[in-house]
Structures are given as structure tokens and as C-alpha cells.
Amino acid sequence: MTGEARPKGGTDRARFLEILSLLRKHRAAKGLTPVKLRALLEDLGPTYMKLGQVMAMRSDLLPAAYCQELKKLHSEAAPMPVEEVYGVIARSLDPPLGTLFPRFDPVPLGAASIAQVHLAELADGTPVVVKVQRPGIHETMRQDVALIRRALGLARVVGGTGDVVDFGMVLDEIWAAAQEEMDFRIEAGHMETFARNNRDVAYVDVPRVFRGLSTGNVLVMEHIRGIPVTDTQALRAEGYDLEEIGAKLAQNYLKQVVEDGFFHADPHPGNLRIRDGRIVWIDFGMMGHLSPRNRQLLDQGVRAMARKDPGALKDVLLAMGALGEGTDQNALYGEIDDLLTKYGTVDLASIDMGSVLEDFLHLARRQHIVLPGGVSMLGRGMATLEGVLSVVSPGISLLDIAAGRMAGRLPHREDWERQLLQDAAGLAAAGHKALGLPVLLSDLLKMGAKGQGRMHLELTPSKALDRTAYWLVGRLTAGMVASAMLVGSGILCTTDLTPRWLGVPALGLAGFGLSILLAAGLLLGIWRER
């Protein structure tokens, strides 16, 4: 698949049959294991690999094994012919190409499934990078998402990890994220917001956006000539202190998360450059957002982890997420305690904060707690940044720096006032309830003395338990019917009923046949659901 728009009708049908063929090839009906899902996306083409890359960042939607496997995907694609590139620019911008860009390199710097990038020069000699979207890619991806949903045929597919994955829901979430990434105006807005947030940080820089030359399909930005952050040899040759780079990189990322609530969700080495003593962040297609409330809860979570307080961590998880069907709060407490025990014996500086966050994300998923998408992207982003830091300055730990930030940060006056108001309100409510305790205790003792004390216990089964009960009752009923038919047919065969076939009453033979078919269907269903 090239990424170009496809005509509807026969081509869509051919693509649908191709998808079905690939699903059969990978035996998707028997379950999509992580390896099978990655191989399927690779066979489906570049746009599906792009969707897979976005999936890899959503550990709140997919189990850990899937996210790890999908990280191996690459979305490189064959470059567009330069005539198509010129056509997109001509349709998006008014002045002729030669007027806008006196110099335009026809050979792309890179080509991916959604867009490709070219070097160019403005009329005043400013070197720029021009990001050009493939024509028709939005419609192509929309059709492909609809086709793969139809081809899967069932909304829930059991993975080889033992988890049940709702791939229909996953597709909806990923498609929503991909649509944002295909609107370059959103990316331009991300760059400007990031630049404003970091305007007072002397060691951080962002490429300048040329808004007048940028549209939904074309993005023109400053060309960054810098040293890749993981090219340690070149950085040393230029006299840079790698420990300082690592420390400032970690400090800035934590600022993005804790103070701004707006952070780079894909800080891999290709998106970080060092130029003129500054860390330059590039590629703002994937950004994470955290509300003030979620930032406060994350802060409480880190503090609870430092105190090794599983109860407080449990409260943070429950406050941040939405409880799903099957959440077991007692088991949740035990799992959190196990994680704290796991990390409690490790030196703070050696703990990978990204791994800690991802462990808690997977714990939340196992307990059916739906966390905000920004929290999941943060876990993936921190894990990626920890990988960068391990190359640039292995002695730097995000968690160590985060703990240092919290230890050195004094609460603001507003924080104190808010906390005092909350505590005062809680104390007043507790006092009001305490006034009624003597009366309630007296009534309880009187009821006990008269033998009128009762305990009301209500058990509310979950939907999962209901489904299991219905399944068991259905199978039991089918087995009893098959047995009754078998016995009844045997009795009929001893009578003189007519008509007869092969010397046996035909009704008895028919009953035997039906009972055997029913029993065979029952056994086949049980075998398939193992």
C-alpha cells in the first residue's frame, strides 16, 4: 500500500479480500499474539505500521508484551515522486513554488507512511525543512481502519498472553490519535506552546515555525543543524560535558511533566539535537497532556512510593483512573505492596522511572482501571528517555532527580491554603458525625437487648460472573437434553412404532441422530473455548 487515495468499489473489495487473506495467513481467528500482530501489521503496509507505532505507546490499552513487540515496527515508506510533492505544496500554498523556495532539494531527507521531509531555502536565504503530507493519506487510513475492523469480524480477540484484547476499542483510540498527527496545524501549535513553556529555560530550544507557510498538509520550520544527542564522540570533540547534558535533559523533561503538563511523548535520539550549547527538541506530532489534578496525583504517587505506602498508592490509582468491571481492591493493594517490595531494595539512583511507571500501568490494566491516555504516554516517554540517558550519561536517574525536585520544592501559599481548607472541612464533617454516635450506640444496644439486631448482607454478582453462570447453565442444559434424547430414543427403539427403517422405528433413529449431533456440537464448543 503506497498511502495514495484509493477509488471506492472494486479496489476496496480487493483490499478487503487481501486483509482477510493476511488474517488467515497469520491465523488471527485463533488469537493475535504480540509477534503475530506485529507481523500482520508489517504485511498490511506502512500506514498500519504507523498505527502499530502509536499502539506501542498505549500500554493502558495493550498488555506489556504487545507494546514491547510493536516497538520494533518502523514506518519507513517509499518516497513520493517529487511531482506529487510539488503538487501538494501548490494546492496548499498560493505563491509559486519557485517564489516560496528558490532552492528545494528534490531528494527527501526521510520518507514515512504519512509524510516526507525536504530541505529547502526561503527567498531571504533561511534554511528550512518542509514536511509534506502524502496526498489522500487521511482517506486511505480511514478506509483501512474500517476494513480491518470488518475483516476482524469479532470485537474481542484473545491474545497469546492470555489477555482478552478489545481490538475494536484499540482501533478507535489509535485512529483518533492518528488523525491529530495528520493535521500539521496541530503540530505547529504544539511547537509554539512548547516554545512558550520553555522560553525562560536558557538551555532549551525549539525549531521556529513559519506559520504563514504552513497548512494542514504542509509544515515549514527552521532547519536544525546540530549534533545528535547520542553521538557522544562528536559531543566530546566539541567540548560538551555529557553529565551536564544528561542532567539538564532530565530536569527539563520533568519540568514539562510536573510544571507544564505538556510533554514530548516520543523523546527518542532522533528527536533530540545539541546546538550552540542548547538541547533542541524536534518532531512534535506526538505530545502528552496532564491535567493539574493528574499532575498533583502523580506527585502524591511518587511521594507514596518514597514512603513505601501501598495504601496511599492505591488511593492515587483509584482517584486517577476509572474503575472497570472486575477491579479487586484487595488484590490491588497486594499487587502494589509487591511492587514496592520489588523496588524497595534497590538504590533510588539505579531505578528506571519509566519502568516503574509502566509496571504500574500494567498493574492498573490487570485490575481493569482505565487511566488517562496522557499517563500511559508518560510511561512510554520516560522509558524512552531513560534509554537516551543510559547512552549519554548512565549515572543520571530520572527518579533520583524527581525526588530531588520534590525535596527542594517548598509548597506554595495556595497549596497550604487549599490543604488547610480541606483539612478543616474534613474535621468539621467528622465532628458533626461524631455528635450522633452516642445516640446511634444507644439505639444499637437497645436493639441487641431486645433481640432485634439484624445483619443485611447483599452480594452483587459481576457481569463476568453472570456470563460464566449462563455459560455453565447452557452447557449443562444442552448435556441433559442430549442425554434425555438418547435415553428416550433407546426406549422408542424397543417398541413396535411405525414407520420403521432397518427394522427399527424411524422416530427412534431420528432421536439417536439428533442427540449425537447435539452432543458433538457441545463437545466441539467446549474444545474451541479451551
TrEMBL record:
* The protein's name in its UniProt record: AarF/ABC1/UbiB kinase family protein
State which residue ranges cross the membrane: 469-492, 504-527
Q: Which GO terms describe its molecular function?
A: kinase activity
Highest taxon, organism lineage:
Bacteria
Which UniProt key words apply to this protein?
Kinase, Membrane, Transferase, Transmembrane, Transmembrane helix
Q: Domain ABC1 atypical kinase-like: where?
A: 72-313
Q: Family, per the entry?
A: Belongs to the protein kinase superfamily. ADCK protein kinase family.
User: What InterPro entries does the entry give?
Assistant: ABC1_dom, Kinase-like_dom_sf, UbiB_kinase
Q: Which residues form the signal peptide?
A: none
What is the protein's species of origin?
Answer: Anaerotalea alkaliphila
